[in-house]
Amino acid sequence: MNANKVAINVCNAYRNEHLTIILLLGIVYSKTTFDVVKFGAVGDGQTDDSEAFVKAWKALCGAAAAGDDVPTLTIPGRKTFLLQPSEFEGPCKSKSVHVQVSGNLMAPKTPDAWKVCPPYSWLSFRNVDNLILDGSGKIDGQGSAWWSK
């Protein structure tokens, strides 16, 4: 799969009641993992964890995997991570990267709380080949706040 750009568009998604993204489902085993908490993410739903996520992504994307290993960015369960609009840029050194969402990702609750909105996407993956995104967590773009816009 070639995923040159996958974006979770919230600014323009106010007309859609639900936003669903399915990239690839499967079981991925990785010896090389990057836990966002180890990069400074708090996961209390109040603290802006964007910088920690970008740092963890850069480490993931810069990792060269050996053999069939797929470097994995882990977002632990039982936590809610508040994220401002963020861009996760490739190309990555590994032929494939895995983002395992076990916790919850949450956009700021109101449009006024967004630090930036152009180019009208909340989470964006650019120039990333073979992106695997899976897990039991939730991705909450706070869409209802945009519906009245």
TrEMBL record:
Alphabetical keyword list: Cell wall, Cell wall biogenesis/degradation, Glycosidase, Hydrolase, Secreted
Keyword Kinase included in the entry's annotation: no
GO biological process: one example: carbohydrate metabolic process
Main location (coarse class): secreted
SUPFAM superfamilies: Pectin lyase-like
InterPro entries linked to this entry: Glyco_hydro_28 (IPR000743), Pectin_lyas_fold (IPR012334), Pectin_lyase_fold/virulence (IPR011050)
Leader peptide range in chain numbering: none
UniProt GO molecular function: polygalacturonase activity
Compartments, as annotated in UniProt: Secreted, Cell wall
Recorded superkingdom: Eukaryota
Family: Belongs to the glycosyl hydrolase 28 family.
Protein name per its UniProtKB record: Probable polygalacturonase At3g15720
Species per Swiss-Prot/TrEMBL record: Prunus avium (Cherry)
Lineage, top ranks: Eukaryota, Viridiplantae, Streptophyta, Embryophyta, Tracheophyta
